[in-house]
């Protein structure tokens, strides 16, 4: 009887610990999942600053920011932000591209605006504002008019969602 109570307590503790770990690290799992649908040179969400700099074939312009830093790769039409806080500390949390050879979730610069919105909605994204779509901790921002001129994907660390810099 004592053995079964001990086993049940241990099992309960493991389930609770697993649930808490999943809650805390879910944004990382989201980022890794979305990386399969990001084709922006070799840039991926959650990659380290060091890997980012070593991966790109061009020199980056460093852009100091509050809450994170930016890296502008002008020749490639890419801007990347890394976080200085939380789960994404010193890791890529935002990718922005204006390059027609890049795609995010199957959407490319130059695509029709309406078809891009349809693509996002089919993937479960909800319209947050005219150009911003969200799902979980992920935000997709479109820029342009009838044609897409820029794409941005950002993943938010829930611990810092309401922090203003």
Report on the structure:
There is one protein chain. The chain contains 3 helices and 11 strands; from the N terminus they run αβαββββββαββββ. It is α+β, with helices and mostly antiparallel strands and 165 residues long. Strands 2-3-4-5-11-10-9-8 form an 8-stranded antiparallel sheet, with helices on one face. It has a 3-stranded antiparallel sheet with strand order 1-6-7, with no helix packed on it. The protein is globular and about 70 Å long.
Strand content: 25-35%
Level of helix content?
Answer: 25-40%
| Large-scale geometry | globular
**What is the average per-residue confidence, as pLDDT, rounded to a whole number?**
89
Q: Order of strands in the sheet with the most strands?
A: 2-3-4-5-11-10-9-8
> What is the number of helical segments per DSSP (H or I, 4+ residues)?
3
What pattern of helices and strands is seen along the backbone? Answer: HEHEEEEEEHEEEE
Structural class: alpha+beta
Radius of gyration using CA atoms only: 19 Å
Largest sheet: 8 strands, antiparallel
> Low-confidence spans: pLDDT under 50, at least 5 residues?
none
Distance between the termini: 56 Å
Number of beta-strand segments: 11
List keywords for this structure.
single chain, 165 residues, alpha+beta, three-stranded antiparallel β-sheet, 30% helix, globular
SSE blueprint and pairings:
Blueprint: H1 2-34, E1 38-39, H2 49-55, E2 61-64, E3 68-73, E4 78-83, E5 92-97, E6 103-104, E7 107-108, H3 113-122, E8 126-129, E9 132-135, E10 138-144, E11 148-155
Antiparallel strand pairs: 1-6, 2-3, 3-4, 4-5, 5-11, 6-7, 8-9, 9-10, 10-11
